[in-house]
Amino acid sequence: xxxxxxxxxxxxxxxxxxxxxxxxxxxxxxxxxxxxxxxxxxxxxxxxxxxxxxxxxxxxxxxxxxxxxxxxxxxxxxxxxxxxxxxxxxxxxxxxxxxxxxxxxxxxxxxxxxxxxxxxxxxxxxxxxxxxxxxxxxxxxxxxxxxxxxxxxxxxxxxxxxxxxxxxxxxxxxxxxxxxxxxxxxxxxxxxxxxxxxxxxxxxxxxxxxxxxxxxxxxxxxxxxxxxxxxxxxxxxxxxxxxxxxxxxxxxxxxxxxxxxxxxxxxxxxxxxxxxxxxxxxxxxxxxxxxxxxxxxxxx
Length: 300
What we know:
Helix content is 36%, strand content 25%. The protein has a 6-stranded mixed beta sheet with strand order 7-8-9-5-10-11, sandwiched between helices. Strands 4-3-6 form a 3-stranded antiparallel beta sheet. Residues 1-28 have low confidence and may be disordered. By secondary structure, the chain is of the alpha/beta class. It has one domain: P-loop containing nucleotide triphosphate hydrolases (Rossmann fold, 3-Layer(aba) Sandwich). It is globular, with a radius of gyration of 21 Å. The chain starts with 5 loop residues before the first strand and ends with a helix.
């Protein structure tokens, strides 16, 4: 049976010293995502101003810079069909990691494979097997109804007619989009647009779905519909879902596994239920995921 990477606390539980050991178990075929010592550095260039004429002149030929480590050698494996919550404070390295997994960024060092593909080296192949939804970035055409946008995506992804029809019917029914399926996108509410974006990202049956803040700005009813859909999608199609969010209810109601990153380092990776048991102060506290996460951030 395929195994996956899990986070194990150090002798003090990982909170006193802020250290969590992430152990990479033996990799076997069957993992949909494998990341090994994945790292990303950025060069932050200075202007050379305010340091004297000599420094200013030198900066014309060799601009001074400092190196920022956004992600520091993280390792993990994800199996097909897993529902993974990937969380951390702002600037922790979540978005950078997702961009490396999706092929937008090339790692500075380390290795990553998604469904057997190196994302940054074969972006076209990788793009055919992933779906991506960012909460504030729409992939819909503003003046077209959802129906016509879907037809364009069918051509782009070369989706067979039967598969396309089956998937459209599936999405429209589960996401309750019948009433606005033929309405121009500009006339849709925020919640309707998010449901339409989810459907567009899933038309080609991707193996992996990356979600960044999918419920941001939505009301309680719209959030509930998105969360219910993700669970039903996973149950029906076994789509692997990687969810980044600051809304802990998203994690609690959708995910089975939690990956927690802080300052570019993975500090926890394991089952969500196990995480609650490890860090809660009692049975009642175990239900308050947001409080537990907040306590960990404050100690790190």
